[in-house]
Amino acid sequence: MELIDGKAISEAIKKEISEEVQKRVQEGKKIPHLAAILVGHDGGSETYVAHKVKSCEQVGFKSTLIRFEDNVSEEELLQTVEKLNNDDEIDGFIVQLPLPKHISEQKIIEAIDYRKDVDGFHPINVGRSSIGLTSFVSATPAGILELLKRYNIETSGKHCVVIGRSNIVGKPVANLMMQKAYPGDATVTVCHSRTKNLADVTRQADIIIAALGQPEFLTAEMVKEGAVVIDVGTTRVPSDKTKSGWKLTGDVKFDEVAPKCSYITPVPGGVGPMTIVSLLKNTLLATEIEF
Amino acid sequence: MELIDGKAISEAIKKEISEEVQKRVQEGKKIPHLAAILVGHDGGSETYVAHKVKSCEQVGFKSTLIRFEDNVSEEELLQTVEKLNNDDEIDGFIVQLPLPKHISEQKIIEAIDYRKDVDGFHPINVGRSSIGLTSFVSATPAGILELLKRYNIETSGKHCVVIGRSNIVGKPVANLMMQKAYPGDATVTVCHSRTKNLADVTRQADIIIAALGQPEFLTAEMVKEGAVVIDVGTTRVPSDKTKSGWKLTGDVKFDEVAPKCSYITPVPGGVGPMTIVSLLKNTLLATEIEF
Asked: Chain B window 106-145: which residues touch A at a Cβ cutoff of 8 Å?
């Protein structure tokens, strides 16, 4: 069993991006600039955005954080999106989700110019990715593929079972894994809450991508000997062993599943660190992409 | 074994659409108007477009056919698309594919206002459909779902195996079958040229959608007793038994597969007649849809 070290890979990629930025500086090219819109004071969102801004600094990007209070109007947010769309200095930007209930997230996402949509949530990017055209791929699916690539894991003709059909992980990663590409070219099965005899399906998988958000859902008897297991789950489970009082827990019962795997991602330190790296890669791409 | 009669269903739906149009006329509402752009004199394209125009007449739609010679420039075509985008009289329009090699099909498709893209090929419609938002779904996938619906075929929790990963059938129908909806909620597997042990996969399927374009590919030993088989193939195979010298042949070896099925579509007369009906439904929808 080999542990897929997302932390180490993400650090290596940050270094690559950092070198790319330095090269751009030397060549007199524009320094990538990411903007983030943060609404309110949700603890999780604050942490994520702070982490994104910090990562920008680490690799030499410029970053701009635009904050609003919870009571910001949808109209005001839309105006800010429009301003960023038209600001040539900004290469890409994100609106940290979730947004307060009085604001339509979908409306905000669709207002973003897809050429600056480095989160890859705009329907145009989802559609372009599905068709196999140049596009921004959202962070988690892109991070998963990057891990498979960095570990040279064979995917062509392999049976990849995705558990979960969310718009931000399950569906897009399934789509990517079936494209004519590497990583890709896999036979892909998407399972979800309505799937019958799930264990019979997962036991056939060469690659399992668990993205249902149910702690320790995937157990040893659901996994074939030698399978590759990618754990996307990140649920906070109460714990008396940590200072914070909770423990980040994946969708995989790691201790019993790991010994059966050829490769497995831990939680934390697997897919998680890759998501911010994907965002950085998209921002770098935004300075060069031609749609 | 019950034969899924696409011809009868399509006639029934045309009648429904026709009644809807009459109701619109009585209410003083706009009559749906479909425009079609046809480039050159390809025999297949001529036939398809003629059939589409005729179907419009049958249900009481207005239709406009815009013809160009093979040597039309991309620029001229783009201008025509732009004109149709801005013409309030036209509710929806299609550009019949394939186009001559000197014209980028993708560029033309993306120039179409997605709110008039009744073929559902624009990346925005592909993406919106994937996310589960209001959208135009392309004709063949929509036709397949309509058949499942009209025959009350259970799909929730069923294992649906799609053979083929094309942008116009395999990928979108797989996506629809996994949505939280009816028809949908199925466990979906997408197989293709790189799939290993395909028969082992198809034998597990409750529903098989064969869309690979290889005549009589699916044989009896690949199908489970009681499966639902949807045959999307329409290859012209030479035949000395027909006047034309060819015979429309599906991807399923019908004679040997049919006895094992609970439901099966014939070729011709299965999915085929549904595609034009889907286009008509999209055009009707175009008069009312709110994006």
From this structure: 106, 122-128, 130-133
Contact B127 A132 (CB under 8 A): no
Cβ atoms < 10 Å from Cβ of B119: 24
Read off φ and ψ for residue B113, nearest 5 degrees. Answer: -60, 120
CB-CB: which of B128, B165, B192 is closest to A123? Answer: B128
| Chain B residues near residue A192 by CB distance under 8 angstroms | 178, 185, 187
**CB-based contact (8 Å) between B8 and chain A?**
no
What's chain A's Rg over C-alpha atoms?
Answer: 19
Interval B200-210: pLDDT, tens: 999 999 999 99
A52 is catalytic: yes
Q: What is the largest CA-CA distance in chain A?
A: 58
Residues of A in contact with B201 (CB under 8 A): 159, 187
Q: Residue B89: which residues within 8 A CB-CB, separation 6 or more? A: B33
The model carries a pTM of: 0.96
Closest CA of chain B from A195, distance in Å = 5
Q: Do residues B223 and B208 make contact, with C-beta atoms less than 8 angstroms apart?
A: yes
pLDDT digits (tens, 9 = 90+) for B244-285: 899 999 999 999 999 999 999 999 999 999 999 999 999 999
Give residue for tokens 């997962």: A202
Domains in chain A with CATH codes: 28-113 (3.40.50.10860), 139-272 (3.40.50.720)
**Of A36, A169, A33, A49, which is closest to residue A95 (Cα–Cα)?**
A36
The torsion region of residue A157 among left (phi > 0), alpha (psi -120 to 50) and beta comes to: left
> How far is B59 from chain A, CA to nearest CA, in Å?
32
Give yes or no: A96 in active site: yes
Question: How many residues comprise chain B?
Answer: 291
Which amino acid is located at A197 in the chain?
A: N
Number of helices and strands in chain A (H, E): 10, 11
What is d(CA A68, CA A99) in angstroms, rounded to the nearest whole number? 11
Q: Name, in order, each residue with C-beta under 8 angstroms of B67's C-beta and a sequence gap of 6 or more.
A: B38, B39
